[in-house]
User: What shape does this take?
Amino acid sequence: MMPTYTKGRCPDCNSSDAYTTYHSDGHSWCYSCKTFTPGEKQMETQKVVEITNNATSTLKSVGIVDSISERKISKETARVYNAQIRKTGSMTTHHIYQYFDENGVHIANKVREVQNKKFWSEGNLAGSGLFGQNIFGKAGKYITVCEGEIDAMSAYELLGSKWPVVSIKNGAASALQNCRDSFEYLNKFEKVVLCFDNDKPGREASLQVAELFEPNKCLIMNMELKDANEYLKTNQREKFNSTWWNSKTFTPAGIVNLADLGERLYDEKYCETVLYPWHGLNDKTYGMRTGELVCFTSGAGMGKSSIIRELMHHVMSNSQDNIGVLAMEENIRNTAFNLMSVEANQRLYIKEIRDRFSKEQLTEWQDKTIGTGRFFAFDHFGSISNDEILSRVRYMAKALECKWIVLDHLSILVSGQEDNGDERKSIDILMTKLRSIVEETGIGLLLVSHLRRPAGDRGHEDGREVSLSHLRGSASIAHLSDSVIALERNQQAEDPTEANTTILRVLKNRYTGDTGIACRLHYDKESGRMTEINNPFMENEEDGDSSS
Assistant: This one.
């Protein structure tokens, strides 16, 4: 029988018999210095490895953790990032960079062939975080983002191993998408320093990524050399640190001389309008627009949930936009069934009604609504801190590109929060920040708010007319909203039509100034839909006013 391996002297450590060459594919392994040398067959078949979700079966490349001498990366830094190398003799032939998912599971490698600078991927690189994301904590003061793995390790070493440094996965072209995917991780740091290459793609990528974050969040390095590794290789540690500390806060462009607008003055692309599904409301408001905050308010049981699901379905049907939903009093399954219910004209959120239909029929309605991939929901119930809810809204707007976001409802968001239980103060803070996010991102924000109990014997459940003074919590809700739309319904009416009819009253309309009763919506118990109707039960109503 022919031997399957040959032992000999190691060219690296000079061990006399630890260097073993395997005849199956020609690779060698030194059991003394742990040096791996790929064989010719491996080099031929390992040019490109298909990216699959079955990560563990495709992570074939292995090496040793050692200094990357040609790039001046120390062994200590390589060990922090678990960056590995392969050698042939004393020559480094490959770099192996490991990538991990959000749970810290190793799911991908990037392999770099040193001589010809070729890269290939193994495993599920698309599902991984940034290079180095698994190493550093999920919050802190500074985090630096580089354009490549070598630059990330170089910057980490130049900064004295004091600050977290990560890298995007596929160069400047992938920077925006990579940072979108890891937005929530990056945004938890106080400052994000962008250390992309000093060339046109790198500078453009810096501006694109900086736009993802709130003002004053991002700092951009203005390097004289090409990249961080050039500073390391030329031993210019002090110069790099000075440049890093003097990074400029990103300031978005936007201050213009109005005389320069020209034809841009008539470009309506700056905002998007989607008409409401009800003519009377459109007559007063001309629809709902991105860049505006619209508050829907009512007492309990007036139909807010029904109207919100009608609006979400309507936006889906009349645009190609993504929609975010933060419903604090229902789980995400109910949110999904609510949307499907509008499509089906059936109250599918009721299990007994849902059970009347086949799985095939339910799946068809699912595919036409949530199955489009355009709805994103926050899986949470109950109160949450202001910062957390704002982070989720910004993430939906920036990373998920949601143009419309529903926040239901304001009161539960501030219940049990800080500020010594001062609901008014919490609402003031939250409304101010929500308004800022609308201005910053250009989203259309649909906010649900409750009413306080009015003085006197007649409450909102008896159909009492709503005014801005009835808004619960703070005057900032009215001040900072572009539109406030109240829902009124006399739940105690003897007439079943009146008892199931909701009046939409515009209390504030920054766009046109037109206020008053806009329309009436009748709730159909069979379909669960809200349909606009004429006034069948009131007489002598003038100009949209009703009696108190």
In short: Residues 129-252 form a domain with the Dna Topoisomerase Vi A Subunit; Chain: A, domain 2 fold (CATH 3.40.1360.10). Residues 40-57, 539-548 have pLDDT under 50 and may be disordered. The longest helix spans residues 423-441.
